[in-house]
């Protein structure tokens, strides 16, 4: 029996290997995550001398901002993860790959 996924989500996960959760985060949660990305991006740009359009990647992203750390046991996300892959979850590494949007042209 499914703990958290709907039948359609389970089907999508089984067929595609992923589930799209539209409007999953509340506006406040999304704003907090976007602010965290902006803050981390500014710190990385400053420390590495990168420009605003330069992409970058960092490892151990959870250590860079508490907003990322809070995703681990997010009350609406964790049940979906447990339903998808089981309860024995281990986080080995986390990455943040930052790619600014392409300029319109």
Can you summarize this structure?
With 105 residues, the chain is mainly alpha-helical. The chain has helices spanning 7-16, 27-48, 66-69, 78-85, and strands spanning 56-59, 95-98.
If you had to describe this structure to a student in words, what would you say it looks like?
With 105 residues, the chain is mainly alpha-helical. The chain has one domain (24-98). 42% of the residues lie in helices and 8% in strands. It contains 4 helices and 2 strands, in the order ααβααβ. A two-stranded antiparallel ribbon has the order 1-2. The radius of gyration is 16 Å and the shape is globular.
**What share of residues is helical?**
40-55%
Tertiary shape: globular
Oligomer: single chain
Strand content: 5-15%
Rg is: 16 Å
> What is the SS-derived class?
mainly alpha
Distance between the termini: 50 Å
- According to DSSP, the number of beta strands is 2
| Average pLDDT score | 91
Poorly predicted parts: none
The overall number of domains is 1
The largest β sheet comes out as: 2 strands, antiparallel
Order of helices and strands: HHEHHE
Give, in spatial order, the strands making up the sheet with the most strands.
Answer: 1-2
Number of helices: 4
Short key terms for the protein model shown above:
two-stranded antiparallel ribbon; 8% strand; 2 strands; 105 residues; 4 helices
Helices and strands in order:
Layout: H1 7-16, H2 27-48, E1 56-59, H3 66-69, H4 78-85, E2 95-98
Antiparallel strand pairs: 1-2
């Amino acid at each position: 029996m499914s703990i958290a996924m709907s039948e359609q989500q389970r089907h999508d996960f089984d067929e595609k290997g992923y589930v799209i959760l539209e409007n999953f985060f509340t506006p406040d949660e999304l704003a907090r995550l976007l602010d965290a990305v902006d803050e981390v991006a500014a710190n990385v740009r400053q420390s590495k001398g990168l420009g605003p359009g330069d992409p970058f990647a960092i490892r151990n992203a959870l250590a860079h901002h508490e907003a990322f750390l809070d995703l681990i046991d997010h009350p609406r996300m964790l049940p979906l993860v447990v339903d998808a892959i089981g309860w024995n979850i281990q986080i080995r590494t986390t990455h943040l790959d930052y790619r600014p949007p392409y300029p319109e042209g």
